[in-house]
């Protein structure tokens, strides 16, 4: 909480907890708070009982130790209640993970290739390839990411999107997001070598018309004649 407060004082925070920018990030935050609300009573009761026992039943001269060694009713209660809590958390998590794993119909596919130590972005539909620069996508559109790597395992992570997906050499993994307009920061989240900390991610989510203008700047207007603005 202190670290969170220091970040807030330093400047605006853009992450899944304080400012979710996609439906997935909203689902992750909702699941987090529900899970925290379910687990908090167990933590508070356990720590409260521990403190009570330390203070009330600490060793004193002339005090005899307890002779009981079991309490069936208590054991049943502390087995059933956590079972119910874990079942509810499992259901919450299943719904969130299902939403992440089964994306809606895609509006844009971007191939993401991890390198030591930069990202390459390919727009196969438009024949545009950029590297070591900002990923530009349209706002309020479903963007599908097909990720891979040419060397070691990397991980594409933008906190505000609630998205973190490994890019593995020789394999293709998938992620998706649907973000509102804005500028977002991220970073490779897999230790991938000596310059791992400098493998940053910049995403610019712009209105659709601006996205098409950006495409034209990176590939001639004739090549984009199929676009319907």
What proportion strand? 25-35%
What is the CATH topology descriptor of the largest domain? Immunoglobulin-like
How large, in whole angstroms, is the Cα Rg?
25 Å
Distance between the termini: 46 Å
In what order do the strands lie side by side in the largest sheet? 3-2-1-5-8
CATH class of the largest domain: Mainly Beta
Number of domains: 2
**Share in helix:** 25-40%
Low-confidence parts, pLDDT < 50 over ≥5 residues? Answer: 221-229
Helix segment tally: 4
CATH architecture of the largest domain: Sandwich
Mean pLDDT: 86
Q: CATH homologous superfamily of the largest domain?
A: Cupredoxins -  blue copper proteins
Shape: elongated
What is the total tally of β strands? 10
**SSE topology string:** HHHEEEEEEEEEEH
Tags for this model:
disordered C terminus, single chain, 2 domains, Immunoglobulin-like, five-stranded mixed β-sheet, 10 strands, Helix Hairpins, alpha+beta, 229 residues
Structural notes for this entry:
With 229 residues, the protein is of the alpha+beta class. It contains 4 helices and 10 strands. The strands form 2 sheets. It has a 5-stranded mixed sheet with strand order 3-2-1-5-8, with no helix packed on it. The radius of gyration is 25 Å and the shape is elongated. The C terminus is likely disordered.
């Amino acid at each position: 909480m202190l670290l969170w407060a220091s970040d807030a004082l330093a400047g605006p925070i853009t992450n899944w907890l304080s400012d979710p920018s996609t439906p997935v990030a909203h689902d992750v935050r909702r699941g987090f708070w529900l899970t925290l609300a379910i687990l908090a009573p167990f933590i508070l009761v356990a720590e409260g009982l521990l403190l009570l026992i330390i203070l009330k039943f600490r060793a004193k001269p002339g005090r005899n130790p307890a002779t009981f060694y079991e309490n069936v009713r208590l054991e049943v209660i502390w087995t059933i209640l956590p079972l119910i809590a874990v079942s509810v958390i499992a259901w919450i998590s299943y719904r969130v993970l299902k939403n992440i794993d089964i994306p809606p119909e895609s509006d844009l596919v971007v191939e993401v290739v991890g390198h030591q130590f930069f990202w390459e972005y390919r727009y196969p539909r438009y024949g545009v390839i950029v590297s070591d620069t900002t990923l530009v996508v349209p706002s309020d559109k479903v963007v599908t990411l097909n990720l891979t790597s040419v060397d070691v395992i990397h991980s594409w992570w933008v906190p505000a999107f609630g998205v973190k997906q490994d890019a593995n050499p020789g394999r293709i993994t998938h992620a998706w997001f649907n973000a509102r307009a804005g500028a977002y920061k991220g970073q490779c989240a897999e230790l991938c070598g000596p310059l791992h900390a400098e493998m940053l991610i910049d995403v610019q989510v712009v209105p659709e018309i601006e996205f098409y203008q950006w495409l034209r700047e990176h590939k001639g207007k004739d090549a984009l004649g199929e676009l319907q603005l």
